Please model this.
Amino acid sequence: MSSDTPTHARLVSGDAAPTLAWAGETHVGRFRPNNEDAFLAIKFNGHEVNYLGKTGEASMEGADYVFAVSDGMGGARSGEFASRVAVDRITRLLPRSFRLNAAGIAGGFTDILLELFSAIHADLLQLGYSYAECAGMGATLSLCWFKPGWMYFGHVGDSRIYYLPLEGGLTQVTQDHTHVGWMRRKGELNEREARTHPRRNALQQSLGAGTQFIEPHIGAVGHRPGDRFLICSDGLVDGLWDRRIEEMIRSGGTSPDGRNLAQRLVDESVDASGRDNTTALLVEIPHPPQTAPAAAGPTPP
Model:
């Protein structure tokens, strides 16, 4: 999942642009007074930015798509404000970088995402220094930027991006920026031990929150029809094991009561835990519709 070696080949000239489908849901949980999670779904090109609804399906031809989840933190309602600032800055800064990139002025996606995360971090720090009610506020941010053939990602904190290919198991693309996450990557903790560790939510990196330096995790994943991606806050993971997340994503579709997959993930997690705000944003690369074979012509005499 590195920025240097994405996994699938790019679309070749002449291939039809793929479509993508998405569904997002957020819930305050069972114990928190307000929801400090925020999620974003937009499409943009060099001319305009369009906000997307909580669910939808569209072609990637002529536009890029960005989906993001941010989990705010801070006293009173400043955590809620921090996550809103994080997703709002994406809509202002990323399209500008897109135009510069198209004009050959900006660097590649790594440079663009590093600049974006650094700018959001600086904005949150400045707000924290300038207003007493914003002191110490910060946010996580996990972002997926979809182009035909590729998903570019940027991440800071302990929200997560998961990847479930058409063939293969569920992979956590991002690294949790916590000490427990570091121990898990080193093989010192298994999933059960990590989930119950007393410092599992102690962040080593976040946007704002007085953190002096950040090192965003940035990379790329090639995608093809049938692949699915999940962006979620840590509240979702608190209520669902990875195995259960994979089972539910594979089941797909809408339940008999009309709930989409994002709603079902959030509802099941809140029922199982609900100790934190809980957000899920699903993105799928659907298979193209099958074209019916042409009818046979009349048999010549």
In short: The first strand starts at residue 19 and ends at 27. Confidence is low (pLDDT under 50) at residues 2-14, 291-301. The domain at 20-284 is CATH 3.60.40.10 (Phosphatase 2c; domain 1).
